[in-house]
Amino acid sequence: MSLEGLDSRRRALLALCATAFVPRASAADDAPWRLLRRGGCVLLIRHAATGPGLGDPAGYRLDDCATQRNLSESGRDDARRLGERLRAERVPIARVYTSPWCRCRDTAQLAFGRAEDWDPLSSFFDMPEREAELTATVRKRILSYSIRKPGGNVAMVTHNVNIAALTKLSVETAEVVVVRPDGCCALRVAGRLKA
Question: How confident is the model at residue 72 (pLDDT cuts 50, 70, 90)?
Fold first, then answer.
C-alpha cells in the first residue's frame, strides 16, 4: 500500500511512528562537553591510528621516529578532527602533555598545535615493571588539579595500556576519557568521547 492512498491523518501518524525509532542525541550525550567547557578536567587521549602492528619494532628508539610504529594517514586525519571538534565545542585546553613516543607527540601536535613531553605518560607495554611507578605518578598529577579552579583542562596523550591502568577502560585510537579527581585518592571517569 502506498502513502498516496492514505488520508492525511494516517500519513501523519505513520510519520510520527517512524520518527519515534530515530536515535536522537540526549542530554547525557552532551554532559561531558558541558563539563569540559567549564574546565578542571583531564582528557586522557589515546594516540590516533597507526600503521599495522602492536607495540614497536624490535630495536626502536625514542629519538628516532623512523624506528617506531607511527601514525597512519587516517590517524593523522583523526587527530586533526579531534582538535577541530574540541575547538568547535569551545573546550579550553590549558596544558598538553604527551608520551615521548612519536605517535603520541604527533597526535598532540595535530590536535592542539603544541605539546610537552612528559615521561610518566610513556608506554609500559614492553616494560611492565614500570607500570606501577608511571601510573602512580600520572594519578598523583591528576589528583593535584583542583576541580574548584575552572578555566582550563589538561590533555594527556598516551597509550591504551596507560589509560587502562588508570581507568580500567580499554579505548580506541583517538578516543578521549574525561577524568576528574574523586576525593583524595581516586579518579572519576566523567565521560568518553570518540574522534
Answer: very high
Instruction: Give the model's confidence band at 181: pLDDT under 50 very low, under 70 low, under 90 confident, else very high.
Output: confident
Using left for φ > 0, alpha for ψ between -120 and 50, and beta otherwise, residue 77 falls in: alpha
Confidence bin at 163 (pLDDT 50/70/90): very high
CA dist 118 to 79, 138, 162, Å?
19, 10, 13
pLDDT band at 28; cut points 50, 70, 90: low
Q: How far is 195 from 80, CA to CA, in rounded Å? A: 9
- 155 three-state secondary structure: strand
Under the banding of pLDDT at 50, 70 and 90, the label for residue 7 is low
Pairing of strands 42-46, 153-158: parallel
- The residue ranges of every structural domain in the chain are 27-193
- Rounded Cα gap, residues 102 and 21, in angstroms: 44
The CATH number fitting domain 27-193, selected from 3.30.420.40, 3.40.50.1100, 3.40.1550.20, 3.40.50.1240 = 3.40.50.1240
Angle formed by the axes of helices 160-167 and 131-144, nearest 10°: 70
Q: How far apart are CA 41 and CA 93, in angstroms?
A: 10
